[in-house]
Amino acid sequence: MTTPIKNRYEFVLLYDVENGNPNGDPDAGNMPRIDPETGYGIVTDVAIKRKIRNYAELVKGDATGYRIYVKEGTPLNANHVEAYKSVDGLEPGKKADTEGVGKARAWMCTNFFDVRTFGAVMSTGDSCGQVRGPIQINFSRSIDPIVQQEVTITRQTVTKIDDAEKERTMGRKHIVPYALYRVEGYVSAKLANDAAKGTGFSEDDLKIFWDALVNMFEHDHSAARGKMASRKLFVFKHKDELGNAPSHKLFDMVKVEKNDGVIIPRKFGEYSVKVEGNVPDGVELIEKL
């Protein structure tokens, strides 16, 4: 949390899954998420942010300034209580004025990596206000339509001692045999540095974020998710805080197509990834993976 970021960024991340479920839909029996109109696979921004949070926590632990606000087992309001105890003039359980809420908001940004990165609504309980994060991430979408495959599995044991003599039971796993996903995102220096509403997101934070996009699947392996890996990361760095080219034009430069003769891809090597056209003036293209 040292040097503030001075540049706007956009990024395109390509990642794939093999025989796994990248993001189950609880409203559909935990089947892989899908766009019912097109058959393309979907992964929510929340799922990607969870992996980034987990990576940051893995790297930094509970180091000062790098704690995680949205964390399993920790009520959000408990963090608000801590903020009120730590800021002079505030007391848990007593409503704070606008100035006090602003101080609590600043404390939360200083102490929690994900608050100053993604933002947060912290108006419940002891209100710490709202934060609009400088990093925003779109839904991921697969390059080609996916197949939601259901695989039957058998269980060789039982849970209860009284059921020891029963026959083995059946279960199901939901997988995508193979899919390459694309996700796009934005980094706003203005939202990080705004005098009134900035979060203090820094160059050190940005490095952790890029590292997380490259390595987050390396520390998230499980039987349910199968084989997942980040494959390509294109970063567009603008010269100025406000940017030097429209984001959609930069995203359109990154093309992903199946290789000739490939009908149903089953590995990353069966795709061709390239950048078409000239990068606009004031923008630098960086391939981090």
How helix-rich are the residues, as a percent range? 10-25%
Tally of strands:
14
Strand share of the residues?
Answer: 25-35%
Q: Give the overall form.
A: flat
Instruction: Write down the Rg.
Output: 22 Å
The H-and-E topology, N to C, reads as EEEEHHHHEEEEEEHHEHEEE
List low-pLDDT spans.
none
Termini separation comes to: 25 Å
- Class of secondary structure makeup: alpha+beta
Mean pLDDT across residues: 93
Characteristics:
289 residues, alpha+beta, 8-stranded antiparallel sheet, two-stranded antiparallel ribbon, 7 helices, 25% helix
Your description of this structure?
The protein has 289 residues and is an alpha+beta fold. It has one domain (9-287). It is 25% helix and 30% strand. Strands 1, 4, 7, 8, 9, 10, 11 and 14 form an eight-stranded antiparallel beta sheet that branches. Strands 2-3 form a two-stranded antiparallel sheet. Strands 5-6 form a two-stranded antiparallel ribbon. Strand 5 and strand 6 (130-132) form a beta hairpin. Helix 1 (45-60) crosses helix 6 (203-215). The longest helix is centred in the N-terminal third of the chain and has 16 residues, at 45-60. The chain starts with 8 loop residues before the first strand and ends with a strand.
